[in-house]
Every structure is written in C-alpha cells, then in structure tokens.
Amino acid sequence: MDLFSWPPIAAVLDAAYRLVTGLSAAIEPLAGTAAGVVAIIVLTMLVRAVLLPVGISQVRAEFTRRRLAPQLADLQKKHGANRERLAEATIELYRRERTSPFAGMLPLLAQIPVISLVYAVFTHPMIAGHANDLLGERTFGAPLGTSFVGLTGAGPVWPAIAVYLTVLALIAVVTTVSRRVLALPQPEGAATPTGMLRALSFLPYVTVVFAAFVPLAAAVYILTTTTWTVAERWLLRRLLDPARKRPQGRTTPSISH
C-alpha cells in the first residue's frame, strides 16, 4: 500500500499541492514559465521557516556537545578500561548538565514526516486520486516532472539540459560552501582526520548525483532546502554562540581604605 494514498496523508499532501499550484498560478503573470519553479522555492521556504525551531534545537545541542567534549574525553581516559563505570559517569555528566546525548535528535526526527510530504508533492505523478499538474509544467523548456537522466524522451533536449545543469551546478556550489563554512573547528589535541574520514567528508556530493535522478521539481526543492540549511546554520551558530554572550572584560572596581 502506498502510504501517501492513505486518506489522512493524502488530504495533507493534496493541501500542499493546491498551495504550490495556487502560488504558481498567482505569480504566472509576473514569472511566466518560471512560475512553477518560483512556487516550489516559496513553498519550500515557508516549510523551512515553520521548522526553524528544529534548527535552533540542533545548533544548541551542537554547542552543548562541543562544550562537554573535553569532559567526555577525560572520562574516557579515566574509565576507558571499565565500560560500566564509564557509562555511569557519562550518564551522570549529562544529568548534571541537564542535557542528553540525544539532544536535538527528537526534533530532527519529528521534521522527517513534514519534509517527506513536501518532497512527495514534487515527485508523485498522482496526488489524492488526481494528476499532479505541477509535474506537467515546463520552466524554460524543461519539464518539471522529468529527471536529468530521463530527458532523452521528454521532447526538446537542449533547453532542458541547460536548466538542469544549472540546478545541479548550484547544488554542487552550495554543497562546497557547506563543507567549507559549516565545518566545526576541531578541539586542541584532536586526532588528524584519517583517509576514511576525509573520504566521508565528500559524502554530501552524493546529493548532486541523487538530484540527477529525480524530477526537476524535486531537484529545485533539494537546491532550495540545502541552501536554506547552510544559511540557517551559519546564522544560528553566530546568534546562539555562548562565547558571544559572555560579558567582555568586566573589571572589579578597587576599594580604597
């Protein structure tokens, strides 16, 4: 059974579909053939704005993990030979700090159904028993319902190839910026990344390959949500950085007798 055909989920999916197609129709006089793409971008940004508390919880958990990292390393050195004692000491540390090793994970998991529903709007040819007309639209000659690898049977190829290569190139650029800008500083004394870890650092580029196999509408969604993630994380790290909230150089006045 297709989960997205279950009536409650289908109703939510249909509501999202009608919102994005309504946006596309409203802005078509201004955006022309780009109306569908603009509507996808707008809907994606609206959803990500609603999910902003999830990003905040993740960044706060990230700072907490960095703050506790030296203490966890000390516990590892002290109790490394006694796994039971290490587990007890670790739990006690988290309890004392009023946090959890899973901080930020539950909100992250909670957003998965929302993201899955939005993604389905850009990939499913049928929604709530009717055709997904969004996937039948074209942007600068590129069909929103066709993937890059499936362009050969979708009419004129060249305009679509240009549009798709632009989207894929932008995803690659955003991924590169993400690797450079969002990389967390390594604590002093941290081990140099091994060859395996260096190889894993290139894993985000798999997104570019994946985007070539999904409809153009979904690729635009991936580009938009990835760009939002980079900008959101960069901004929140600066706004929520505990180091920026500490008072600067406060001096204690001397008391003369």
Instruction: Tell me the overall shape.
Output: elongated
**Uncertain residue ranges:** 249-257
Q: Would you tell me the overall average pLDDT?
A: 84
Sheet with the most strands: spatial strand order:
1-2
Class derived from helix and strand content: mainly alpha
Question: What value does the Rg take, in angstroms?
Answer: 24 Å
Q: How can the largest sheet be summarized? A: 2 strands, antiparallel
Give an overview in words.
It is a single chain. The chain is mainly alpha-helical and 257 residues long. 63% of the residues lie in helices and 3% in strands. It contains 11 helices and 4 strands, in the order ααααααββββααααα. It has a two-stranded antiparallel ribbon with strand order 1-2. Strands 3-4 form a two-stranded antiparallel sheet. Strand 3 and strand 4 form a beta hairpin. The protein is elongated. The chain starts with 6 loop residues before the first helix and ends in a 12-residue tail after the last helix. The C terminus is likely disordered.
Concise synopsis of the structure shown:
This protein is 63% helix and 3% strand.
Q: What is this structure's SSE topology?
A:
Blueprint: H1 7-31, H2 35-50, H3 52-79, H4 83-96, H5 105-110, H6 112-121, E1 126-127, E2 130-131, E3 138-139, E4 142-143, H7 158-181, H8 195-200, H9 206-211, H10 216-239, H11 242-245
Antiparallel strand pairs: 1-2, 3-4
Entry keywords:
two-stranded antiparallel sheet; two-stranded antiparallel ribbon; 11 helices; single chain; disordered C terminus; 257 residues; elongated; mainly alpha
